Amino acid sequence: MAAIGSGRPLASMPVFFSEAQLEFEPGYEWALGEKIAHPEHAARAESILGTLGRDPAFEVRPPESLPGGLLRRQHADALITLYETAASMPEGETLYPSVFPRDTRSGDPRNLHHAGAFCFDAGTPLSARTLDAVTWSAATAHAAARALMAGAPAAYALSRPPGHHATRDLFGGYCYVNNCGLAARALRRRGRVAIIDIDFHHGNGTQALFYRDPQVLTVSLHGDPREFFPYHAGYADERGAGRGLGYNLNLPLAAGCDGQAWLRTFDAEALTAVRAYAPAALVVAAGFDGYTKDPLGEFTLETADFEVIGERIGRMGLPTVMVQEGGYHVAHLGRNVGAFLRGVRAGQAALARSLPAA
Ligand code: OKP
Ligand code: ZN
Q1: pTM greater than 0.90
Q2: Pocket around ligand 1: residues whose beta carbon is below 6 Å from it?
Q3: How far apart (Å, rounded) are the C-alpha atoms in residues 343 and 304?
Q4: I need a surface site. Which of 27, 33, 154, 301 has the fewest CB within 10 A?
Q5: pLDDT (tens digit, 9 = 90+) per residue, 311-320?
Q6: Which ligand sits nearest to residue 121's alpha carbon?
């Protein structure tokens, strides 16, 4: 078998996506007492497919189905059982947990009235379609990691619903299964893995999964959690625990942060930490809600900034899986993702040209 990412930059980058991911629609959520259209809807994936689908630089294909039992190796048995229970909800119905017991051990995952025991926020609904959609979303991340292990230098998982807020036991923040976690776990068999989270929101789920694990470095740049979701995690003093101490890096940034300031922190802190760690592979939690027009995020990143971010990542010269996270300006999401992925390719290609031929 080829070493991970041993290939030259490919004629086309593999993009994984399954139509089943379009079947889940959260519909609405409550924002400070008001019912609003849910930002995490299927049109996001269609926007991305609209850009990548007609660019020969990318090859969109369905992932292989996830190996049985894989979700339960990363997540609590009860969490997955809850999604299975929800699969028999009446078609078209959505359930928003609203009772959150402080003692989460009291939850029965076969009773949907107990869903709040497995959830940490009220904007992340369950329906009959949730299990199928999140399993296929997870499959895209797993397939992208497998593409690297087969020699691809880079691969993109169009994972929707997203994953970086999902912990071992809890769903929330529009996330049900931690897709980046699954990619990192697949790659970890070949060596140390670094995860860089560029979504506007802190990846609290990913942080929690690997908090005690020195084999996976987690780095996140995000809006200051004193002001932004998930509020209860993402502070700079969270640095890992036990043998994992020193292998979690949080870089909170102030609202209004622009591309220049963002990239300064990215280079000086995030990429420096990854370089020092010298991982065998990189996973990027690729959220685009730092975009200046994004309705949720409050940074002022432009489309061109995402291309530069991609290029810097590509120039790291590491086999890289990009896993889709947030990004809610639907009309511009596709072009932001396209710019980012083209940047990664350009960065990897530039590096390959500057190295002596093998
Ligand atoms: C998901 B991802 C209150 C708003 C709650 C949750 C944001 C989840 C973002 N109704 N917002 O990181 O892009
Ligand atoms: Zn986000």
Answers
A1: yes
A2: 29-31, 123, 162, 165, 173-174, 199, 201, 229, 287, 289, 325-326
A3: 9
A4: 33
A5: 999 999 999 9
A6: 1
Element (H, E) at 262: helix 259-265
Q: If you search the block for the tokens 């996330």, which residue do you land on?
A: 175
Tell me how far apart the terminal alpha carbons of the chain are, to the nearest angstrom. Answer: 18
Are β-strands 34-37 and 28-31 bridged in parallel, bridged antiparallel, or unpaired?
antiparallel
Q: Provide the 3-class DSSP secondary structure of residue 59.
A: strand
165 a catalytic residue: yes
Instruction: Tell me whether residue 11 is exposed, middle or buried, using C-beta atoms within 10 angstroms of its C-beta: 0 to 12, 13 to 18, 19 or more.
Output: exposed
User: Which residues lie across from 159 on neighbouring strands?
Assistant: none
CA distances from 293 to 93, 299, 334 (A): 32, 9, 14
Q: Which residue type sits at 346?
A: A
Six token digits for residue 70: 């894989």
The span from the CA of 297 to the CA of 102, in Å, is 29
Question: In which band, very low, low, confident or very high, does the pLDDT at 1 lie, cut at 50, 70 and 90?
Answer: very low
Q: Whose CA is nearest to atom 9 of ligand 1?
A: 173
- CA dist 339 and 253 (Å) reads 23
Residue pointed to by tokens 């990192």: 184
